[in-house]
Amino acid sequence: HCTPTRAPRRGTIRMISERQIPAYVQTMKIYESETGVETQPACGSERVGIVPHDDGFLASHSTEPLFTPEETQFVIDEAEARAERLGGWTTQRHANYATTDVPVQELPETHKWFREKALPEVLYPFLATSYGGVL
Questions:
Q1: Over the range 54-66, which residues count as b (16 or more CB within 10 Å of their CB) and which as e?
Q2: Counting runs of H as helices and runs of E as strands, what totals does the chain give?
Q3: Along the 135 residues of the chain, how does pLDDT read in single tens digits?
């Protein structure tokens, strides 16, 4: 007795964007520039691609720090001050996995820096350099 094999499906592959999810759209509004800062072009930072896929990589990392020690220390200081002021870190934000963190939007100065400098001047250009072919 022979079991027939199913022919491979041929159809339209649908790409679903997170932009179609209302909660995502609302969350991203938190990170929009309030001063109209323009996103810088791809930065050309040295990066290492890992997990090869097609003509690019699924993941990559910078070969050098994207932020200065002063910038990272400022974020750490504001987060620790908030934790001290409120009696600890946030630990119950995610139902499916445990984290100990603080939402960036709860750190006013860090949130402003993130929106107006980190995203448009550093992170978005790095992502464009790393994944420009698929963004």
A1: eeebeebeeeeeb
A2: 4, 2
A3: 555 455 555 555 555 566 667 776 777 777 788 888 887 777 766 777 777 777 777 788 888 899 999 999 999 999 999 999 999 888 887 778 788 888 899 999 999 999 999 999 999 888 888 877 666
Type of residue found at 7: A
- Are 60 and 48 in contact by the 8 Å Cβ rule? The answer is yes
Q: How many Cβ atoms are within 10 Å of 47's Cβ, its own excluded?
A: 16
- What is the CB neighbour count within 10 angstroms for residue 118? 19
Measured CA to CA, the distance from residue 65 to residue 90 in angstroms comes to: 27
Name the residue with tokens 């339209």: 12
